[in-house]
What does this fold into?
Amino acid sequence: MLVKTLLPAFVAIGSAAAQSGTCTANGGTTTINSQADATQMASCKTLKGDVVIGTNAGPAIDISGPGEITGALRILNNGLIESFTSNDLTKVGGEFRIQNTTKLSSLNMPKLTSAKTIQWQSVTSLENPTLGPLTSADEIIISDTVLRTLDAFQLKTTRKMDINNNPRLTKFNMGLQNLGEIMALQANGLRDQGIDVDLPNLVWIANMTIANVSTFEVPSLRVVNGSARFDSNFFESFSAPNLTALTSGDLSFIGNAQLTNLTFPKLTNIGGGLLVANNTALEKIDGFPELTHVGGAVKLRGSFDEAELPSLENVKGTFDASSTTDIDSSCKEFEKHAPQGEGGNGDVQGSLTCTSNNTRANEETGTDIVGGGSGGSGDDGENGAVGMSLNSALFGLVALAGFAVAL
Ligand SMILES: *[C@@H]1O[C@H](CO)[C@@H](O)[C@H](O)[C@H]1NC(C)=O
Ligand SMILES: *[C@@H]1O[C@H](CO)[C@@H](O)[C@H](O)[C@H]1NC(C)=O
Ligand SMILES: *[C@@H]1O[C@H](CO)[C@@H](O)[C@H](O)[C@H]1NC(C)=O
Ligand SMILES: *[C@@H]1O[C@H](CO)[C@@H](O)[C@H](O)[C@H]1NC(C)=O
Ligand SMILES: *[C@@H]1O[C@H](CO)[C@@H](O)[C@H](O)[C@H]1NC(C)=O
Ligand SMILES: *[C@@H]1O[C@H](CO)[C@@H](O)[C@H](O)[C@H]1NC(C)=O
Ligand SMILES: *[C@@H]1O[C@H](CO)[C@@H](O)[C@H](O)[C@H]1NC(C)=O
Ligand SMILES: *[C@@H]1O[C@H](CO)[C@@H](O)[C@H](O)[C@H]1NC(C)=O
It folds into this structure.
């Protein structure tokens, strides 16, 4: 009986399933091309397979009724849809992808708390989406949108987060506690102003590449398991007051033009290298009072007139300090740690160089600082790829959707 109320594209997977309200798409994908299609699904408790909103569906689609989609939910390449509502959906078992939807300005899914991944890209009218909020997702990619807030996402843990090119996003505050692979932030907020980032509960993170932020607060951060890289940010001050170690990767600060104060009061151990370069306003590098072990190289380059690493005992790679100003007195201290063959105590295992009055000190920002082992440098190439991937899986699904329409 229920079968009759379903879209032609559905078949019930058996009477037991039908009685429990499970609807299964023929071919694995249900395509919704109109509100009438959506209304026919209202009696399904669970939609098995993927749900695709057709490219000509709209302006308003409401798929209230179903509580779960076992596969993906996709709204792609649709220039008509303005509003999408799903009052009962709590879970999307696959990816929830919205891509290239230029008119969508209202997304109302007040019970959605879980999706395998979130991938919203080129969503150019949606400012304030409503989700459960979402508390469970393995991956969140938000790119080229006009979102003003990420309040719809309240995760305590996730694997990957890539938030880039969202010009109206000026604040990011989340109770995230840990992150298993990488956080990448770039080009959010107004150009030259950036985004304020507050992660008060973050205790450990595998890797992070942070660019163009105006503030970055991580008061609880204790461990970075891989690398942390800060490029072209707008902050004047950066502190990781509770960070004790980067267990396997590099710590880098490159080209943060306004940075004057960099402090890591508890940091003792960097598994990879330390690179502080081309932060032209930074006059003193004195924020590493406890730093003892560096598994890679140390490279300090800039316009500073004083640098010190008073607790340093072991650098496995080379040590290179160079400034546009006279740092002769700092060099004398560093030279005490030089390899024995260079007249020092051997704390630094690679060779040590320290130069003053180097007019080119800000020009070299090379990242060849990882010394052996498992240095997990953040992967720049990956960031770029994430922003533009229209992968073959997606094309495959578009084709499937076309097939369902033909039915
Ligand atoms: C974006 O969607 C529009 C339809 O709204 C389509 O014409 C266009 O080709 C799509 N762009 C891409 C890159 O797929
Ligand atoms: C990162 O380090 C923390 C603290 O040592 C640990 O609990 C966590 O499991 C590590 N995470 C990864 C991905 O290795
Ligand atoms: C944003 O950061 C990137 C480096 O990741 C840099 O190339 C770019 O110039 C920065 N943009 C601004 C406006 O600072
Ligand atoms: C900093 O670390 C100490 C010791 O692990 C801990 O007791 C304290 O709560 C941490 N502070 C913050 C703000 O997380
Ligand atoms: C992140 O950190 C882990 C170590 O916790 C490392 O194995 C991995 O290669 C790093 N890089 C990325 C892109 O996840
Ligand atoms: C630098 O920042 C640290 C931590 O926020 C702060 O305690 C210290 O007073 C600052 N130093 C200067 C010179 O502003
Ligand atoms: C750096 O330049 C200044 C000014 O020309 C000079 O007084 C100083 O001796 C130079 N320092 C070194 C180490 O060459
Ligand atoms: C150094 O940083 C400035 C911005 O402060 C930037 O214009 C310049 O290109 C950077 N130089 C290098 C070699 O990255």
